[in-house]
Write a structure and sequence with these properties.
Layout (H helix, E strand, L loop, with lengths): L4 H14 L5 H4 L2 E9 L9 E3 L1 H14 E14 L2 E12 L11 E13 L2 E11 L3
Parallel strand pairs: 1-6
Antiparallel strand pairs: 1-2, 3-4, 4-5, 5-6
Length: 133
């Protein structure tokens, strides 16, 4: 069975993020009208909704404090124009995160729902569940 194009795009985005790409290097994955919805979690207790500028700005700032990160896809699904991935994320930072000192790994379990139009992500919903840090 052929892999749907939108699943390949989602995989490529996660691989590029893990490789440290940010800013204009990842902007092409998103529609200019993107709405990224991040539900409340331990790093962002109020959650939020981001537009393309905020996504790019956050990725650029993150590059300054995230020394490494990985996205280990556990499961992936495609339903119509939507890709759903369950991911184990690991990251290390240049600054302390909770009780975790700089350079030590934190871990999270993510579910990402990415809705596509014309090969671009138009809506992304992040359900981020962090292990205690």
């Amino acid at each position: 069975m052929d892999t749907p194009e939108i699943l390949l795009i989602a995989r490529n985005l996660l691989a590029d993020l893990a490789a440290g790409k940010s800013g204009s290097e990842i902007a092409n994955y998103f529609s200019p009208a993107i709405r990224q919805i991040e539900y409340p979690n331990m790093l962002n207790v109020h959650g939020g909704i981001s537009d393309i500028k905020t996504i790019i700005d956050r990725a650029d700032k993150g590059k300054q404090i995230v020394t490494s990160q990985s996205y280990d896809i556990q499961r992936e699904y495609v339903s119509g124009n939507t890709v759903i991935v369950e991911v184990v994320w690991r990251g290390t930072f240049t600054l302390p995160i909770g009780k975790t000192p700089p350079g030590e790994e934190i871990k999270a379990f993510f579910a990402l729902f990415m809705e596509f139009e014309n090969g671009k992500i138009v809506v992304q919903r992040n359900y981020d569940c962090f292990a205690e840090f």
